[in-house]
Each structure stands twice: as C-alpha cells, then as structure tokens.
C-alpha cells in the first residue's frame, strides 16, 4: 500500500530529508504529519471511502502530498494535465465524479465542477493548519488508488484505474533494476500528472531516500539543482535530454553525483544517447518502456550506454520483474522470436481497466492480458524491439498525442472533407504533429489551426498542416493510407518507439 512506503521511510530515519521543493524542505516526520493532516481535511470536507480527489497544479511538494495522502486515506487521487484546455479538464472532472478539486488560481474557475474547491497554496495550507493528523485508512491491495487520464482514440480521454497493488508493483520493478537506498536523491522533473512523473516516488520513500522536485523543466535549473542538491538519479524524456546536454556543454556544472539517467516516453536515437553518455560519464543510462495502463513500467534496459553499439542497444530491454510479456498475432496466439506482432503483458502492475469505459476495457484487457497496441518482436536474448504503433499514437516531447483526437478537432470545420494526422521527425521533440487535410473551399492553414486550438491542448495542435483538394490515398476497404503519407517524411530517419 502507498502509505507503507511513507511509513517505512519514517521508520528508517524520521529526521532524514524526504522532500526538497524550491525553498521548502520536509523531513519524513514533517511529510508524514502533513499527509495525515490532509487526510483529516478531506474527511472534514465530507469525503467517503472511494471518493475521487482531483488536482491541477505544477510539480510541487503539495502535489506529492496529495499523491500520498488521498489513497492512504481511502480516497482516489486524480492528477489532471495542467496543459489541457478547460473543456478537457471539465470532461475529466465530470467523468471521474471528483468531489474535491485542488488547483492553482489559474484554474479556480473550475471550482464550480466539484463540491469542494481548495485553492493552492493558501486554502490548502489553511486546511492543513486547521486539521489534526488523521490515521490512514485500512485499504487493500486491490483498492483503487488513482485515476490517470490519458488521451482517447475516440476523442474522449480514458481514466486509467491504478490500484495500490499496481503502484507497489511498479516500485518493485524499478527497485529490481536500480539500487535504491537512503543515499538516493531522485529528481522529479517530468510532469507529476503523468504516471512517469511519479515513477520513483514509492521506491524512493520506501528506501528512506530523498525526492527533489522541480516545478517545470528548465535545463539550466535542472543542472543547477543536480549540483546544489547532489542529485543521484532522474527520469527525462528525450526532448529534455538534448536540451540538458546542450546546456551542460555550454556552461558545465559539477554533476558528478549523478549516477542514473533513465529515459522513456519518446524515441531516443543512438546519437543522442551517445552525447548524453559523453556529457555525463559518471551516469548509467536506462531505457524504460511502459504505459499508464502498466503503472507504468513494462521493460527496462539498464546499462544502456554499454550496449549502444550492439543490437540490444536499440531495444527496450527485458520485461520487468513480475511482468509476463508476449508477442501475439491477430488471433492472440504467441509468435516465435523475431516475428513481429502485438505486445501484450500481464502482471501485478497491470491496470484493471478504464473508468466508466467497459467497451474500451474489454478491447484492451483480454483474459488478464493488457494489449498495448504496439507492434514489436523479441530477439533470441529476450530483448523487446518495438517497430510500429497500432494506435497511430504520436509521442511529442514526452506527451502522447492520439491522431484520431486531433482529426476530430479539425473535422469540426465545415470545409474539411478528409484529414489524416501523424507524427513527423522533429529534432527537438522527437516527433511533431502533422496534418494533411482535404478542403472543399477557401481556408488558410492558420484558420484551420485556430479551430483545433479551441478544442484541444496546444501540444496536440499540429505544428504543420498541408492543405489539399485531391482525395487522400486509401486502401481497398476505403481506409486512409497514413503510412503512404507518412513514409516520405521519415525517409533517412530512424523511427523508434520508446
């Protein structure tokens, strides 16, 4: 259970620093006390066991406290993407049935969507001051701990249900690949509303280590923090890696404490990884592949920097401890090594399904297996190599963008007859969102993009768009052939799933 990790850290050394966030430093005793007060404040607000608690905020120690306290109090944490539009956030609040919302002043107008609203930081701190610490709830391993909203291929986001068992299994997976102890200082810089942002929280706390939190990514601030706080490990997406390498080479810091740079969520080519290894020679590289539905770790490739000149260096590594991974054909039959098929997995880390989405749950979770929608193969050494996506998902700067959702937004313009959205190579973001639209009248690219901006988050809006008057290429079944549109952009580039 989530509370067990915090409790163990407290027992190892109550006076040890648990969290550093800007000028705020909390010991394990203080973090435990604040989490207990937060549980009491939620109960005072009338929440019952299983009620959902939503939060929209940048990375901060308060978001960490909510992540720990809500599930430990018997509630369900719902971290929402601060980059989403009001329409997207209101949908998630309504879909989850959240009773309480914690948000910064920029999102205070969402308070009318819930029963109780706490503005960060003032109302939050006032509630903690007024509440004595409460006891944790008696939660079970299969009780729901959180709902993590991820983009929807049908235009509506899905709330991925993660239980205490799922999150505990993820901690075990990470601890099985890297040595966690009291000396670890893990830097959180990936957004904490993603499962990847909190990937090491329980492992670090359960080891008595320290969380160092950055509110947002900034390469200079990140390197300054590593130097100042003696950070030993972190997780970055490739878009961050390139910027950090550039900044460190321009203005070097003493980052000799850094021992692990893990990465995932987006493609990372060998050239980029070599530059990371050369710039941070004391640090090991570790590739992590996963999904929100798997809490999130599926496979890990430790010591990746030693494998960059070998075939396994282009893989995602082996299945994590306790994760069964298979490659199957369209009939869900296992295929032999080297043959491409869909990646499916099962284990204690796999979500029970999507909140209020029985049809999507039935399609993705079959006979105890989660079907990832990714195509890949296993080599003779058991390393997973991903080769394509079934879901046409674009990964841009670590954010998942579902092409169907973008297409639906563009189709809202009456002059759009056909549209195809896909990822194209981008040096900074790994992939950029590109659209090809067939229009039936006079419309500019900027006008069409304005239509999208009203309906989807800015990072989902196409970076480039091509307007056509001729029909898009189609298969015999009438399906738009995205690969035929996409392949010219990727000629001479290595397209990799990460």
Structure report:
The protein is of the alpha/beta class and 498 residues long. It has helices at residues 2-12, 28-44, 61-72, 86-96, 122-129, 164-175, 201-206, 219-229, 238-250, 270-279, 358-364, 403-410, 445-453, 482-490, and strands spanning 17-21, 24-27, 52-56, 76-79, 100-103, 116-119, 144-150, 158-163, 185-188, 210-213, 233-236, 260-263, 284-290, 297-301, 318-319, 324-328, 341-346, 353-354, 365-366, 369-378, 384-389, 393-396, 399-402, 416-426, 430-439, 464-468. A 9-stranded mixed beta sheet has the order 2-1-10-9-11-12-13-14-15, with helices on both faces. Helix 1 (2-12) packs antiparallel against helix 2 (28-44), helix 8 (219-229) crosses helix 9 and helix 9 packs across helix 10. The longest helix has 17 residues, at 28-44. The model has no long low-confidence stretch (mean pLDDT 92).
């Amino acid at each position: 259970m989530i509370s067990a990790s915090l409790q163990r850290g407290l027992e190892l050394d109550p006076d040890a620093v648990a969290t550093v966030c800007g000028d705020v430093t909390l010991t394990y005793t203080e973090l435990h006390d604040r989490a207990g007060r937060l549980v009491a404040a939620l109960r005072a607000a009338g929440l019952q066991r299983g009620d959902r608690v939503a939060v929209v905020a940048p990375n901060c120690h308060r978001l960490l406290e909510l992540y720990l306290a809500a599930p430990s109090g018997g509630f369900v944490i719902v971290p929402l993407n601060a980059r989403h539009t009001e329409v997207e956030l209101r949908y998630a609040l309504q879909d989850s049935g959240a009773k309480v919302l914690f948000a910064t002043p920029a999102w205070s107008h969402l308070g009318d969507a819930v029963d109780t609203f706490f503005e960060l930081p003032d109302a939050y701190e006032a509630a903690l001051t007024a509440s004595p610490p409460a006891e944790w709830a008696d939660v079970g391993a299969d009780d729901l701990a959180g709902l993590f909203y991820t983009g929807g291929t049908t235009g509506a986001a899905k709330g991925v249900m993660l239980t205490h068992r799922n999150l505990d299994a993820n901690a075990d997976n990470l601890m099985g690949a890297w040595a966690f102890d009291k000396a670890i200082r893990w830097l959180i810089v990936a957004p904490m509303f993603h499962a990847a942002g909190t990937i090491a929280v329980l492992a670090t706390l359960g080891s008595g280590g320290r969380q160092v939190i950055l509110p947002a990514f900034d390469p200079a601030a990140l390197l300054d923090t590593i130097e100042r706080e003696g950070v030993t490990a972190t997780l970055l997406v490739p878009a961050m890696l390139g910027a950090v390498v550039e900044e460190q080479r321009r203005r070097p810091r003493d980052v000799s404490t850094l021992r692990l740079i893990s990465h995932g969520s987006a493609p990372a080519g060998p050239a980029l990884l070599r530059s990371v290894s050369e710039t941070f020679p004391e640090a090991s590289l570790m590739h992590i592949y996963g999904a929100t539905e798997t809490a999130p770790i599926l496979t890990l490739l430790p010591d990746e920097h030693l494998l960059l000149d070998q075939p396994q260096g282009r893989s995602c590594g082996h299945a994590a401890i306790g994760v069964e991974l298979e490659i199957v054909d369209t009939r869900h039959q296992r295929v032999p090594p080297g043959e491409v098929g869909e990646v499916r997995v099962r284990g204690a880390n796999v979500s029970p399904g999507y909140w209020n989405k029985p049809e999507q749950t039935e399609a993705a979770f079959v006979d105890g297996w989660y079907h990832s929608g990714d195509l890949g193969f296993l080599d003779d050494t058991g390393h997973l190599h991903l080769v394509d996506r079934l879901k046409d998902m674009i990964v841009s700067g670590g954010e998942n963008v579902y092409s169907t959702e973008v297409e639906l937004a563009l189709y809202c313009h009456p002059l759009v007859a056909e549209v195809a959205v896909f990822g194209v190579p981008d040096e900074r973001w790994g992939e950029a969102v590109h659209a090809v639209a067939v229009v039936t009248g006079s419309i500019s690219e900027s006008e069409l993009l304005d239509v999208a901006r009203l309906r989807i988050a800015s990072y989902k809006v196409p970076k480039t768009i091509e307007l056509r008057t001729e029909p898009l290429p189609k298969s015999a079944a009438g399906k738009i052939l995205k690969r035929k549109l996409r392949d010219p952009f990727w000629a001479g580039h290595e397209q990799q799933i990460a």
